[in-house]
Design goal:
CATH superfamily: Phosphoglycerate mutase-like
Helix content: 40-55%
CATH architecture: 3-Layer(aba) Sandwich
CATH class: Alpha Beta
Number of strands: 6
Number of helices: 5
Strand content: 15-25%
Structural class: alpha/beta
Largest sheet: 6 strands, mixed
Shape: globular
Order of helices and strands: EHEHEHHEHEE
Length: 144
Amino acid sequence: MKIFILRHREAFDSGDLTANGQEQSEKIAEYFSAIYNNKGVRLMSSPWERCVKTLSPLAKIKNIRIEMDSSFGGDFELPELRRGWCVYKETFLYKIKKMIDDGGTDVVLCAHREHLHFIYTDLGVSVSLVEGVPECICLSSVER
């Protein structure tokens, strides 16, 4: 099993992807649809529009739905969310660890920059960059 975690593509404050962000999301769709041409994959996302729109082209190609989870989204510039930072972070890490422990279908997860940081600093698993997909990491040590 592999878990790919990527940061949403370039977006306006409104959540809509910029033209560049839309182009990037189309390239992500091409990249992952080639890898998962004849295999199943789960798509998971922060409920934030920019994340969902980043995975939408891939969901359309694969004809699958995007599973949204609020543990994968947040704006830590907002003081009310910063207070819940530790609980939020632990919930995110717990869910990733559970996916690793449960095994199963590979996952492509779209979240925010903070989530990439959590993985690097707190999860304790081997992480590699995904060549050809900026701001995307693979938890490659979860092969079973």
